[in-house]
Predict the 3D structure of the following.
Amino acid sequence: MTRIPHDTSGEPNPLKAFSLDQLRRRTSMKWRTYPEDVLPVWVAEMDVTPPGPVVRAVTDAMESGDTGYPAGTAYAEALAAFADKRWNWPGLAVERTAIVPDVMLGVVEMLRLVTGPGDPVVVNPPVYPPFYDFARHADRRIVEAPLGDDGRLDLDVLERAFRGATEGGGRAAYLLCSPHNPTGTVHTAEELTAVAALAERHGVRVVADEIHAPLVLGGARFVPYLSVPGGERGLSLMSASKAWNLPGLKAALAIAGACAGDDLARMPEVVGHGPSHVGILAHTAALRDGTGWLDALLEGLDANRRLLAEHLPAVRYRPGDATYLAWLDCRDLGVGDDPAEVFLEHGRVALTGGLPFGAGGAGHARLNLATSPEVLTEAVRRMASAVRSAGGARG
């Protein structure tokens, strides 16, 4: 599978569309959780202007009163075409897809298909905190298989976790984050093929959260889990939500591998009532007609990664190959296990603390790069000031 290069979009950087004053008028979680003097670079919302095709799709639906219940396979068809062109993967079968309200609710439904109450779910910390929350809420038991020191999958650790999870012949699932949140790691075809072989050997079912798949930067290549040898029994969740900043327009797709269609067919029909019809219209428009906007975004994110590395030298930061999230190792700063708390208290800048990400999260914080260079520069300035203030307070 060869990598398909990004187009030269010619579109303006969508991260530069709004001033800080304009952003503060927003009413979403990112801009309403903290007081106005706090600069928010935490939750996974982007400070972008929306793609024109998405605006038109939503506006047309409003003007025509097309605000009923979802129907049809247009979303799946758009994703299949995007996957074929972008990832050179023609294997996304529309007939093996189902709409779900969003990726995490879809993950829960997939776990219910392949495991039962009390069964183990393997995760790779540090990892997206809702993996823990949703799995436990579904009465599943978490088993950790931490990433290696290089931020990549540790196959030996993963095999031990699989072996332990299936002792006694019980059922188990592996919740794969691909690309990985928060590190931005893009798993290679070789790694994913090895994962599939381990899963088959130990009877573990793989459920892949691939929501960040369109957000691959630089020279990396996203490989769909269902495309690798042995991935046929896997289940995947995908959405346009993260890449086009559509979390408020709920919609996602559950996708079954070639040998997992019967599993997906057992999902209750009522699950498909949860997605927003307008959301599906928006996601479909993004996938079909929003690739130029996406390419301009990726260029802007790449510039922000370089800016962060340049202006925050005291923090150990290994830029990931995907997502708009930066995983910051702050252990050398001497600010304790929760540096986000220090940055908030002393710098009035909100990051996501590392502790809820599981093993390896202490001393870390996650920063959202999807903002303007001006906001990012001010956030970094405040963070540096916070470290100096915290040091003075301890002295």
Notes: Residues 1-6 have pLDDT under 50 and may be disordered.
